[in-house]
Amino acid sequence: MFESSSVASLSGLRVLVVGDLVLDEYLIGQVSRLSREAPVPVLEQTRAEYVPGGAANPASNVQSLGSQAVVAGLLGEDEAARRLRALLHARGVDMAGIITDPHRPTTQKTRIVAEGAYVFAHHLARVDRLSRTPVSGVRERHLCDRIATILPAMDAVLISDYRLGVVTPQVVDVIREVAQAHHVFTAVDTQGNLAAFRGFDLLRCNASEAMGYWGRMLEQDMAYDEALRALVMDLEARSAIITRGPDGLSGIGPDGDVFHLPASNRTQVFDVTGAGDVLIAVVTLALAAGVDFRTAAALGNRAAGIAVTQLGNVSITAADFEASFP
């Protein structure tokens, strides 16, 4: 069991977050009737909310926990980029690593949400505006140069790979080489394509992504044990976490010991959006601060349990942690 001193260790660090920057838009209202044009509900919008998503979400959590986040990624020249920059600026996130591409849309995920008659807000639909084209040419070189300049002064680097074109093989190579040369802790949270991230200190994926890499079903703890050992051996990683949704997480630390933690919250789940981002931000901070691996995983697990009690992406604070302790 961890103590409040473990939470305090999450502050005062510097973390470079590299990945796909996303603006999350929520169009919220009440459903009044079914449309006459098609059998779909008509939402009478009452408000719109905007929050940082994708790699901007773990960066926001690094910041809200008292550390300094620097983001590196790609934005377009559009209204979504202006909104996202304003949100990150308001949170104190350093945007020194952001490259602009006027020919590329800023990734925006629009969720249409009904509330009022429902006990919980109800997601009706999601519309994504994005490009999956990998960054290349002069912009890829500029991004790599920015990363190489910023990284030596960091305590950790976290890759948040939503597979939207920012995390190219060249970007990964630069991060790995510079981080190793300057002894910077490396973490990666990827939606698949695990094989691209060899030699990192921490890998995080969910069960379906682990199954895709391992090529077998994951059902019992023993299967997770085998999958985790295979991950760290195949990819030369020091540690790994597989998140298991309502079943918590399984982890393997640098000592080779495997453990399983139940979900810290299974009864007050409101919205699971962004819970993995919160977890990886907390675990990265804790490990960079020298917290032992099992305690770091427990901190991340608790943070994810806090995040799912609220709508959309949230930024966890030390006060949220303290309020969650029995």
Question: Could you characterize what this model shows?
Answer:
There is one protein chain. With 326 residues, the chain is of the alpha/beta class. It has one domain: UDP-N-acetylmuramoyl-L-alanine:D-glutamate ligase, CATH 3.40.1190.20. 35% of the residues lie in helices and 29% in strands. It contains 10 helices and 13 strands. The strands form 2 sheets. Strands 5-4-1-8-9-10-11-12-13 form a 9-stranded mixed beta sheet, with helices on both faces. Strand 11 and strand 12 form a beta hairpin. Helix 2 packs across helix 8, helix 4 (137-150) runs parallel beside helix 5 and helix 8 (275-288) packs antiparallel against helix 9 (293-307). The longest helix is centred in the C-terminal third of the chain and has 15 residues, at 293-307. 45% of the residues are buried. The model has no long low-confidence stretch (mean pLDDT 92).
Give a quick set of tags describing it.
single chain, 326 residues, alpha/beta, UDP-N-acetylmuramoyl-L-alanine:D-glutamate ligase, nine-stranded mixed sheet, four-stranded mixed sheet
Task: Walk across the major sheet and give the strand order.
Answer: 5-4-1-8-9-10-11-12-13
Give the N-to-C terminal Cα separation: 11 Å
> How many separate domains?
1
The low-pLDDT segments are: none
User: What is the CATH architecture descriptor?
Assistant: 3-Layer(aba) Sandwich
Please identify the top-level CATH class: Alpha Beta
Helix content: 25-40%
The average pLDDT score comes to: 92
User: Radius of gyration from the CA trace?
Assistant: 19 Å
Q: What string, H for helix and E for strand, traces the elements in order? A: HEEEHEHEEEHEHEEHHEEEHHH
